[in-house]
Design a protein that fits this description.
Blueprint: H1 2-8, H2 18-25, H3 29-38, H4 45-57, E1 59-65, E2 70-76, H5 81-88, H6 90-94, E3 96-102, H7 104-110, H8 113-118, E4 123-125, E5 136-141, E6 145-152, H9 155-165, H10 174-178, H11 189-207, E7 211-214, E8 218-222, E9 231-243, E10 250-260, E11 266-277
Parallel strand pairs: 1-5
Antiparallel strand pairs: 1-2, 3-4, 3-5, 6-9, 7-11, 8-11, 9-10, 10-11
Length: 287
């Protein structure tokens, strides 16, 4: 009669044995599976209750997976990919480009993103894609772009840096540089990195950003020579940002930085994954 009443009211009912659930609490995953199998059950009562609740409320779950953690997110059925991205952060929805998407069963059976990509199971979905239960997403979006810095390249600094760290002749001597493909004395690429780092740190101090360091750089490219007298600046585009689950006082970001000279010619670009301190570490995750 309970099931009949629930159906008549547009609701649902789930049988849960408190005794069974109490026994399951102290078991590891293997013991739990074996115990449920002996009882002729595929999942716990709690799992059935959650599933029924999601169904009744019209909700579904999608996943994001990174190198250190995986997270489940809840959205309403019928939500399109940008709305799903917005469940993580509103910036993701505003700047949504596309969603790299893998079906849950494919992700589990093939063993992760790389095997799924190799097997052709990773799809590129756009703004009209309707999220499916169990989708594994990696969102691509346009973040805000900052332009900052002004660094005039000095001849003495070029030579001093090269002498200490990169003593190629074309970084040290006008005569040697004249016979090279640079044509004249040029700065080491690593010197350009150092000058850029100074502009980045100055910008963080000016904006009150508490940097907690970085995890290296990716895709570093030196795209044009840097000469004494050049004036450099940085454009920095935010690609990703999220809060660390394991260290809630920390935010994790990724930016694409491009360095330009006074002629607006790009001389260097790179991706930088950074760590910043949150202004309010006590803030809830679902803000």
């Amino acid at each position: 009669k309970v099931f009949e009443k629930a159906k008549a009211e547009g609701a649902t009912a789930v049988i849960v044995s408190a005794a069974i659930e109490a026994d399951l609490v102290g078991m590891d995953a293997e013991e739990r599976t074996e115990f449920l199998s002996e009882l002729g059950l595929k999942e716990t009562g709690l799992a059935r209750l959650i599933r029924a609740g999601y169904e009744l409320l019209g909700l579904l779950t999608f996943f994001t997976v990174g190198p250190k953690e995986a997270r489940a997110w809840t959205v309403a059925k019928g939500s399109k990919a940008p709305q799903a991205a917005g469940a993580i952060h509103s910036d993701f929805e505003r700047g949504f480009i596309r969603a790299e998407t893998i079906a849950y069963d494919d992700y589990v059976s093939l063993g992760g993103e790389a095997p799924c990509r190799d097997a052709g199971k990773l799809r590129q979905e756009g703004k009209e894609y309707v999220t499916k239960d169990g989708d594994v997403f990696h969102f691509k979006f346009n973040g805000e772009t900052q332009s900052f810095g002004r660094y005039e390249v000095k001849r003495e600094e070029v030579i001093d840096f090269a002498r200490a760290y990169d003593p190629h002749e074309f970084h040290l001597s006008d005569e040697a540089a004249a016979g090279s493909h640079f044509g004249r004395l040029s700065a080491s690429g690593w010197h350009t990195c150092a000058m850029t780092m100074r502009m980045m740190v100055d910008q963080m101090h000016e904006k009150g950003i508490a940097s907690m360091g970085g995890a290296g750089v990716d895709e570093l490219r030196w795209t044009a020579p840097v000469y004494p007298g050049d004036v450099l600046r940085v454009e920095s585009e935010l690609l990703e940002k999220r809060r660390s689950r394991s260290r809630p006082e920390m935010g994790l970001i990724q930016r694409r930085n491009t360095v330009f000279n006074q002629e607006n010619r790009a001389v260097m670009s790179f991706l930088v994954p950074g760590m910043i301190a949150l202004r309010d570490p006590s803030a809830p995750f679902d803000e």
